[in-house]
TrEMBL record:
<keyword id="KW-1003">Cell membrane</keyword>
<keyword id="KW-0808">Transferase</keyword>
<keyword id="KW-0328">Glycosyltransferase</keyword>
<feature type="domain" description="Glycosyltransferase 2-like">
    <location>
        <begin position="12"/>
        <end position="170"/>
    </location>
</feature>
<keyword id="KW-0812">Transmembrane</keyword>
<dbReference type="GO" id="GO:0009103">
    <property type="term" value="P:lipopolysaccharide biosynthetic process"/>
</dbReference>
<protein>
    <submittedName>
        <fullName>Glycosyltransferase</fullName>
    </submittedName>
</protein>
<keyword id="KW-0472">Membrane</keyword>
<feature type="transmembrane region" description="Helical">
    <location>
        <begin position="270"/>
        <end position="291"/>
    </location>
</feature>
<dbReference type="GO" id="GO:0005886">
    <property type="term" value="C:plasma membrane"/>
</dbReference>
<dbReference type="InterPro" id="IPR050256">
    <property type="entry name" value="Glycosyltransferase_2"/>
</dbReference>
<dbReference type="InterPro" id="IPR001173">
    <property type="entry name" value="Glyco_trans_2-like"/>
</dbReference>
<dbReference type="Pfam" id="PF00535">
    <property type="entry name" value="Glycos_transf_2"/>
</dbReference>
<feature type="transmembrane region" description="Helical">
    <location>
        <begin position="235"/>
        <end position="258"/>
    </location>
</feature>
<keyword id="KW-1133">Transmembrane helix</keyword>
<keyword id="KW-0448">Lipopolysaccharide biosynthesis</keyword>
<dbReference type="GO" id="GO:0099621">
    <property type="term" value="F:undecaprenyl-phosphate 4-deoxy-4-formamido-L-arabinose transferase activity"/>
</dbReference>
């Protein structure tokens, strides 16, 4: 029986693209050099998901797809962020092993074979750990904080670094594609899907050109996706905070009553009253904000806010891979051109 087109692809490399027109030709050249000299020769593909980049990245992707048969490009109608764009790439990836990496060449293409080997050896997912990160200081500190919070909220192993450079089995990709909400946090979906996870150490490279696309606002937005999109821990934290506040208020109330009984002439303390009111108001506002964040996300999901919309592809629409079945109303779509 002849093998289908999907069966002939053993390795897919999914790369979300944003403001990377200058680096894409070099990235593809390095990927080809690594994989053409490997066991995946003629059995790999590179999926470039253009996240509505404002530069000429889509034009470059189309040119690369014409030059190299293994390059498949999609362009999204709106900018949806790195994780949602990655989900768009996963939805058309055909490989038995799927690699996810960034588009800036800070992830060395040579490490792809080591990642794939871990999946061949039986692991479901393999992450990377950087020996020495080339990011600016605030990003390194923020990453450490995010790693600590992820350990607490997602119950991930404490020594596992959730890098954006990783490999997974197709079965894991199929599982996480069942998530159809508008706020995607891929690592949270992975941690919730399997315990068969390992990691390898790699060298972190300097950016090939330009500056990173993640600023403080985007980093905070990603943190909120992890906190409220993959865990109910913030709600539990709000509940615990409310309980502790109630207990502290009760103790303070007993103290005031006892003080009044022992010293009937004592004047009520204006400072303590104002401090108590401000403290209670602050905790209540915080808890209401946490609840509001969840309610807002529920509202957007119920209104069928799309996870992504594919506007154009560099290949025939009929060749679009069939993503995993989606439960509930579909949140992703492919616009036929």
């Amino acid at each position: 029986m002849p093998r289908t087109q999907r069966d002939q692809i053993d390795l897919s490399i999914v790369i979300p693209v944003y403001r990377s027109m200058a680096v894409l030709p070099e990235l593809i050249a390095q990927l080809r050099q690594v994989l053409d000299n490997s066991s995946y020769h003629n059995r790999f593909e590179v999926v470039l998901a253009n996240d509505c980049s404002p530069d000429q990245s889509w034009k470059v992707i189309k040119e690369l797809s014409q030059q190299h048969s293994f390059v498949r490009g999609i362009s999204l109608r709106k900018n949806v962020g790195q994780h949602n764009a990655t989900m768009a790439g996963l939805s058309i990836a055909r490989g038995k092993i799927i690699i996810i990496m960034d588009d800036d060449l800070q992830h060395p293409p040579a490490a792809i074979l080591r990642l794939a080997q871990q999946i061949e050896d039986g692991f479901d997912v393999c992450y990377t750990r950087y020996r020495e990160r080339k990011h600016v200081a605030w990003k390194r500190w923020g990453s450490r904080f995010n790693n600590w919070v992820a350990t607490l909220m997602l119950k991930k192993p404490a020594n596992l670094y959730l890098s954006s450079f990783k490999a997974m089995k197709r079965e894991i990709a199929t599982t996480i594609l069942r998530y159809d909400g508008p706020y995607t946090y891929i690592d949270g979906l992975i941690v919730g899907a399997t315990n068969s996870v390992t990691a390898i150490d790699i060298d972190h490279q300097e950016r090939f050109s330009g500056e990173g696309n993640y600023n403080l606002r985007k980093s905070l937005s990603l943190w909120l996706k992890m906190a409220t999109g993959s865990s109910i821990y913030p709600l539990r934290l709000a509940t615990i905070a409310g309980f502790c506040l109630a207990a502290a208020s009760f103790v303070f109330f007993l103290y005031v009553i006892i003080e009044w009984l022992l010293n009937p002439n004592v004047q009520p303390g204006w400072t303590s009253v104002i401090a108590t009111v401000l403290f209670i108001g602050g905790v209540q506002t915080f808890c209401m904000g946490v609840i509001g964040e969840y309610i807002g996300r529920i509202y957007l999901r119920l209104n069928n806010t799309p996870q992504f919309v594919i506007g154009q592809t560099t290949f025939d629409d009929e060749a679009v891979g069939d993503p995993a079945p989606v439960r509930g109303p579909t949140k992703r779509s492919i616009a036929r051109q």
